[in-house]
Request: fold
Amino acid sequence: MNKSLFFAIFVVLLCISNLNAQTSEEAFNYSSSGVFGSARYVSMGGAFGSLGADLSSISNNPASAAVFLLPEIGLSQEISASETLVLGETRNSKINLSDSSLNQFGFVIPFRNINDGPFKLLNFSLNIQKEQDFKNQISSIATRGIGLDQFFTNNAQGVPLDNLETRENETLNDLYVFLGNNQGYAVQQAFLGYNTYLFDPISNDLNNSNYISAASYDQVEHDYYVNKTGDHKKYSWTIATQYNNSIYIGVSINTHDIYSYELSNIVETGFNENSEIQRVHFNNELIVEGNGISAQIGLIGKLQNNIRLGLTYQSATKFSMIETSNQQLAVDRYEDQILLRNEVNPNTSNISEYDFSIPSRTSLSLSYIFGSNGILSTEYSFKNYGNMNFQSGSNQYLRSLNNEISSSYKNASLIKIGGEYRIKALSVRSGYYSEENSLIIGNNSQSALTFGLGYNFGASLLSLGLINSKININRSLITSGINDNILAEKKHTILVISYNFKL
Reply:
């Protein structure tokens, strides 16, 4: 490799600057949504874009808030269980996970007879609702042809050896912090690999910037585990009105909160007997927090007494993100036929800040109301995931990541179908939810069957909703450096219990 190429690689590494969670995969996780909300809402597959009188419908279409004639408050608790199975491996582990959390809370306050004109109703509402659930565990034991040594060696190429050596009275922790603050995440990875002897410099000259792996293998065995928690919550502040009791209009200002915690471990074995490297253990901890804002406008029109049409548009959501990461690398290796362990645990956090944008969404819905006996509703939405965007500025890495997103993702349609049948005070509900694959290569589609019951006590309503969903997952082994993905299928069952009280 010539010096000009060394320099080019080094410049790219400098541009990365503490970036590790910013990947197209994570961008999709933050941008996607699922079936969450009140028990009535989820049990009808979320097909509420042309309906109202449910607090979760307001987060779907703000015009739904204008349907309420009485003040109402409600909350929803969920109990969930999930099962994730890695696909395409002869040896895999099934991970089961259970959890309980608040799914939705909201209220609406109507003001009637506000004037003598066609607008006689003005409603205010706040609804807090989960948009996405990040909770997941994946376990994979697989034989692969590429090892972690390549990740660390690739990050080292182009980095002068002098940058990886400690100075007098400088600790490994000091150097790790310095590199993170001044040269970025990729050079930190080079530092970890060099100081655990995963690779060797071609020469001991301090200007050397070419390295070779110390590991020898035909294939390595990866024991991989990741535990992820957190969610994306949406706070919808809504004002809505009616026009001549036939057209409902609503506007929402939405604030968004994202919190994600992830702990991942890779243990690598299966090296050749004569290999200097015998075992690698790479541990990463990542916390991502974000706050965003979006706007939403919606319409519901009564085409006839029994037919309603809904239209809603949610703008792109602009997020400010902060991520905190911690790393640890341990390597077992032979030196003079003695097995030694070299470990680097910097015991410090990398902190980075960046901006991120979730693409807009447009929805069209249609419903038919069978008098007081029931409802049949459907909804169609689309979102262009290729418009997911990191605000890059002069950062070349984020620019290249945005190019990767636009070439890897496409439009995805979302279909919701739901129905409700009433037998006096008892309601029976069912629905279907499906979002198509948004990857050009791969599969991240999801679908769900939903069921539910509700009982109207007059002044209050008790509802149960059950969601059985299947989610396809594409998971990178690590965030960069090794082009190797894990394909998994997550089966998620959620029981939602809601209680709504009319004031």
Residues 23-142+221-502 form a domain with the Porin fold (CATH 2.40.160.60). Residues 454 and 463 are 4 Å apart (CA to CA). The longest helix spans residues 3-16.
